[in-house]
Amino acid sequence: MSILAARLGRLTPVLTARERAAVVIQNELAGQEPDPDLRRSMPREQLTEFNRYLALYYIANAELATVCLSLSLQAELLIDCTSTPRQLEKAAAMVAEETGEELKTESRRARRKRSSLTVPQFLLGLAQDVREGQRRVALYRWKELRAIEIVWDEIAAELGCDDVLHPSARQMAETAKEKLRSLIEAGGTKRRKPPGPDEAIVEHYRQLAQSVLRTFQLLEAAT
Known about the structure:
The protein has helices at 3-11, 17-29, 37-40, 47-80, 83-99, 108-113, 119-159, 167-189, 199-215. By secondary structure, it is mostly helical. The mean pLDDT is 87.
């Protein structure tokens, strides 16, 4: 028996439910099997609280990570659609060239004041609207992703761990952020830091975590 194992063996009877869960989670993240004594020596009264902490770990890496995957896929779809405004602008330029019209970019307000629009003006305005719509969606998805990161941090703090995410989940979140950041910058906010999440969005994902705990009948196990 190693010195570390011997020390852990002496400590396991006095560990709290939170400490036991933290050790199990860190072993899991490191790809190691937890010491069976962590569970064998656990007092019965710690079981529900211990299960709640493991449920939070599951929520972080399954429920919230799945939402993160969805956001990443949506960002990829938005990136695939970024050619649409360019195609509309190209079409506007081609029509303007054929008709001899001078092509000039106008704000949406200015376009609305017009009683009529030429085809090039309409196509150019449509390109602007599509690009702005993509940017708005990217900004909202960014806020959602930041909200998820905040809830991840709150779960880690509750578990007393520096991190509770599998490397694959963390990488997925970083990849999604890069995709969304590129969309936001392409939409005209380059060099500006994207905004943080609204509290309502953060609360939405907190409630998602609570609903899973409720499903597991572990909501009242908080210390």
